[in-house]
């Protein structure tokens, strides 16, 4: 059964439909893999064994009666622990939600359940999705399957590592500034941030509501499209949800093609500050795209140099407001201090004990940026920068159908390397943040190796043009597979580890 875990979701779905393998076998194979390697990886905060097997058994039973099933029925999936699930814990990677159970399912989770996809469990993340390495989780870091001494990116390192380590064929992530694409890049997986509003945020624990977006994590571009079509589409529970149809994403992924496509290199998002090996792989990808008939042009987005600064005002501002509800009264942890426990003292003690340093740093920063007298200077200015970034994108998409850049400036770094240097940590998202600021979609696909570690290539498209990402992404994926003689993850080392 070892081969089962290596199949893409699309191929596994075909085998399930053909009756070559049962949903229980497929689910059990992944649960066994989790048992085997997750002691070393720590991708999962909770494994949902009994329920996943029940769903799988139900799929097998339905199939035996000949009743209709969703094409992905029986394909297991992991869910980032920022997304609420009924019947399983949801911690957001924080002590403050330890032991809390959501009374409802996120819309994306309801859609997985409707498709009868067994949910394997909940994956690790930086606390409240704040970070780029998963080291800010209150439950210990996740390790990169390519090298256990290195980070899997963040905040969705758990989802990316689970998929890279063949613990799950698919996972859900959330991307506020890059938390799907950046972990995708450094683990050799595919990560998609859909157009803002394209996938419901109902039941995604809010970090920065104007930037947050749920999206797919997978090993192939086609698998991401299959999952995107399941989770996408209008949801009346989310007031920012688009009413547009999801679009023919799977069709685009099955018909990868860049012939005649205008691809814009973003001048500001490569070169100086980018690791030589990353730059090398990026140039190789450009050459392959050119050979396949793409027209490569250069575009300039001069305001991107302010994107990171503006993000780190808007994001903490929204987070400081969103996280005010963790007060020791409504959710999870409650710490009652000695003496006269007034409500203020209970709140203070709970938040002091329940939040980690990075979350506190951002709450303080956001509260300051929103305070009277500073609001215009900080939050107001950051919003103006956001408009300038949107205008840069508008101009760039006047010259190109899609834009391209490396997803991250470097490959995976060592655990601990950037933990005490918040600015160095923040810089990992320099190429991913602009898309969130503009609400546009982005994809990261594995772009080969630099010094034995994965490099990610990012495509960006105008809002609502997610299909273009799948068309371009699938084309580059197959060009690169031709170049390396197969999928990148086939080259990943065996995980032998600390149990
Ligand atoms: N790394 C970025 C941050 O720390 C992005 C996080 C995310 O996308 N959730 O804010």
Text of the CATH class of the largest domain: Alpha Beta
Q: How many individual β-strands?
A: 11
Q: Helix coverage percent of residues?
A: 25-40%
Quote the distance from N terminus to C terminus: 22 Å
- Secondary-structure element order, N to C: HHEHEHEHEHEEHHEHEHHHHEHHEEH
Low-confidence stretches: none
Beta-strand residue fraction: 5-15%
Can you describe this structure?
It contains 16 helices and eleven strands. By secondary structure, the chain is of the alpha/beta class. It folds into two domains: 2-282 and 403-491, Amidase signature (AS) domain (Amidase signature (AS) enzymes, Alpha-Beta Complex), CATH 3.90.1300; 303-387, no CATH class. Strands 1-3-2-4-6-5-10-11-9-7-8 form an eleven-stranded mixed sheet, sandwiched between helices. The protein starts with 8 loop residues before the first helix and ends in a 15-residue tail after the last helix. The mean pLDDT is 96. The chain binds glutamine.
Question: What tags apply to this protein structure?
Answer:
alpha/beta, Amidase signature (AS) enzymes, 499 residues, binds glutamine, 39% helix
Write the layout of secondary structure elements.
Blueprint: H1 9-17, H2 23-41, E1 44-47, H3 49-65, E2 77-80, H4 107-114, E3 119-123, H5 157-164, E4 170-174, H6 181-187, E5 190-193, E6 214-218, H7 221-231, H8 249-254, E7 262-266, H9 276-291, E8 295-299, H10 307-322, H11 343-354, H12 357-370, H13 376-399, E9 402-406, H14 422-426, H15 433-438, E10 442-450, E11 453-460, H16 466-484
Parallel strand pairs: 2-3, 2-4, 7-8, 7-9
Antiparallel strand pairs: 1-3, 4-6, 5-6, 5-10, 9-11, 10-11
The site of glutamine (GLN) has 14 residues, from loops.
